[in-house]
Each structure stands twice: as structure tokens, then as C-alpha cells.
Amino acid sequence: MERTGLKIALAQLNPTIGDLEGNARKIEDACQQAGKAGADLVVFSELVLTGYPPRDLLYKPDLICEGQKTLESLVARIQGPAVLMGHVGKRKNGAGKGLTNSAVVFQNGKILAQADKVLLPVYDVFDETRYFQAAHHPVIHELSGTQLGITICEDVWDFPGFYDQDIYHSNPVEELVEAGADIILNVSASPYRVGRWQTRRELGQHIVAQYKKPFVLVNQVGGNDDLLFDGHSFALSASGEVIAQAKGFEEDLVVVDLEQGKGDVRPTPECDEEEMFRGLVMGVRDYLNKCGYSKAVVGLSGGIDSAVVAAIAVEALGADNVMGISMPSQYTASQSISDAERLANNLGMEFSVIAIEELFEQYKKSLSPLFAGMAEDVTEENIQARIRGNILMAASNKLGSMVLSTGNKSEMSVGYCTLYGDMAGGLSVISDVPKMKVYALANWFNRDKEIIPQAIIERPPTAELKPNQTDQDSLPPYDVLDAILEGYVEKHGSVDQLIKAGYEAEVVRKVVRMVDSNEYKRNQAAPGLKITAKAFGSGRRNPIAQKFRH
Description:
By secondary structure, the chain is α/β, with parallel strands linked by helices.
């Protein structure tokens, strides 16, 4: 088995976008830790100095200027092992964009090499050609007799079997191997979705099997707006063995000795539910903390969605920093209030009850001249939801807490939610979690003992906005709905394809119609945390006003 003599530290950090000084301190601390561990080289993630994705901050000249100054300061201060880290570079010559997505190698006060990203993705959440100019070729740098093949995230993904079709005209990894690279290094900011860490490892093993070179991938960790980055950095030997593995969903530094073929190997998640829960916890914590919040408020309906959001919030922020508010109306069952209180007690969070019946009646009285002679309908249902949203936002303003909205992906998909009502909030925690996965998360959370009351899990879901209401009055069974939504939203399937797959034609057409007609609601929703292949967020750009019929 081919080996090199390098000892490499995989420095998996959680940068805050735009916090150049704070990110630089993290980089410097990691380098000191790596030096104490005897590392020859410390590898960081893509654009670690600015955080990924910086988006239109890249249009701010001050950010680019300060970023360059911060890089120069790091180069001057850090002594010991060589460093490979991502940063925003400047195109040296030729036509095109003025910036590059780059990785720089430096040691003992000198910049030794810079590699620019060759493959710039422009699908799903990525829009890199908006900002960066692509390089024509990858770069090799020699360190202690080892030829380092440097790649940046997407540069390693142009491999047969990992796209439905070839979308690039070059293969940077193949170029590096043909040029004599001894090892392939990848600085990455690969967003999370369920199972993505396993896909990255499979990709690395395909590369190793093809080229018989060790492979090291260092991925960003942390939540940045709607995107989650799971970390799970790893190193593979030339035979494909996992010889280093960083933690998921938290900062870590692992060291691998390529001469010995051994390194630190952390445990990985045991199931999808653990992955999702840890990712959502990280996303809530980072979104609030990076936005300057430490406390959250959740409307507790006594249902499964708000229960799971409360459990995630308590895990992320601590029970003392989460308040639950029950807001019963005349349609609210006593069980809903008692289940919500029991949940709050089990989680150790603060709990309050604010009845809305009097407010609701006052609304109807005030609106009676306008609505004279009209029967009650969904209007009155939505008024209740908007009263609750108003109360939650008042608590947010007064207490300095962020409202966490609790709608799941199934409801958001078909518009089974109220604009300015239950959609109100600063972060939509489970808006990319289908309803059946919400149940799976609740059962996983209760794996050791009952925290989310079993009655909440078993009770038929209901909005309780009119007498004897259940979700299935308006929607197909959630297992059917989720399957249709996965085919339509995530896999871009057509109505005909879904019908051919065995779903009832009338149900498919109804679901698709509901999805398409509620684009305007989702466009005004709070940011949601992405955990699936296609979330209602930055990676989905459907027009609101459109007439395409499926």
C-alpha cells in the first residue's frame, strides 16, 4: 500500500460568516493544537476564513480587503506545521470575475502556493459563478517530499455515478494524479442532507479505488442560515480504509499518520433519526447564537410538531432558555393543554397558558359589520392562528426570545398553515421534515424514556380550529402525502409518473395543485433548516405567479 510520511491534522471548524477575526482565532487555536499533536500539515475547510456561503457579502469591497489583511496576519503569526485553508482569492489575470474560491498553503510566514477551485457548482443551493472565476487546472504543491494534490469541494465530485449526467468537461482529480500527486486533499463545505456523510465517504472510496491514492476531505461544520454542514471529515488510505474520522455536527480536530496508516476515528451516527436530530439541534443553536439570540419561545399546541420542536430547542439552548406557551380556544381539548404541560415539565422548560377565546370573540365582533350575512369558514380558523402568532411575537419582543415556528414539510408543501399565524417566527425548525419523519424523531427521542408523552405521539393530528377537526379532513393520510411530495418536490416527478407509480389519480392531482398554489405562502415563511435533497429554501426557485400545468 502506497504511503507518505506526512502527519496531517483535519481541522473541522464552525465559522461564522463574515466574522474574520473570530474565524481567524479558531484557525490559530487549531494550528496550535495540531502542532502539539506533531502534525506536519493542518487542513481546514472551504472558505473557512469568511465562512461558507458568504453570498452577496462578496460584493462588499471591505470584506475582501479585510479578508486579505486577516490572511496576511495569520500567515505572519502562525508558526510550526504547514497550513492549507480556504479563503477568497483574487484573480491574477485574464477576463472574468475578479474573485476566486481558493485554498492557500503557507508555513512559517510565507505563502507557498494557492489553488483556485476548478469546478463551480450552480445547482440546488449553489451559485458560485455569480461570484467566482473558475480555474483551468488544479494545483500540486510539494511538502516534505510529498506531492499534495489540492482540490476544493466540487472538484472531486465529477466522478462517474455521482451525477445523473455529466455536467463538467474536466476531471481535476484525474489531472492531479496524471501530474504526479501522491495524495488528494479536499477542502470542502458540503451541505448536510440525510445520509450525505456516507455519500461523501463512498465518493472518496471510489476515487481511491480508481487512482490508488490516499484521500483526505475536511468539511465545514455548523449552521449558516438555512444550510447545515455536518462535518464528518475523514481520511482514507490508498486501499480505501477509513484511517481518520471526525465527529458529526460539532467542531473537531483529528490527526492521521499517513506513514503508519492510522489516525483518530470518531463514532458516526447510528441511524437517520440521530443524524436529523443532531443536525436540527446544531442548526437551531447556531442560527440563534449567530443572530445574537440565546432564548426561544415555542407555541405548544399539544401536538407532535410543537413537541419535537420544543425537544430540539431545549437540547440546543438549554431548558432555562426555552419557553412554551399554550394558547387554547373554545375548540381546544383539555387533553391538548395537559399534554403540552406534561411535555414542558418533562423537558424542564417554562410553561404558560394564555387563552385566546375572549380575543377571538372580540375579533369576530369587530369584523361583524364587514362579514354580515356570511357563514363562518376558514377565515375564522385563520383568525385564531393569527391571534396565536401575535401572542408569540409579543412574547418575543418583550422577552428578547426568538419564536420558533413548528410547521412540518408536509404542511408547508400543501399550504396547510396560516400566513402570519402558525407560520410566524424567526426560524422554521422542521419545515424540511416530512410528517412521518416527525413521528420517527419523536420515537427516537423517547428511545431511553418517555419525554414526549406517548399520548401526543398516538393522538390523531388536529389543528383544533373548529369542532372535531383532524388533519385528515383536508389531507390524504400522511404516509401517502409524504410519498407523493417526495416524488413531486424532491424528485421533480410529474403527475403521470406519480399515477403510474400507483397513487390515486385524484389524490395526486389535488396534492400537486395544493403545492403549486401555495408558493406565495412559502415565499414569506421564516428560514427553514435543510435536511433533504430539496428544501423550500435557497435551493428551490419556483416562480410564484405562473400557469404551468402538470
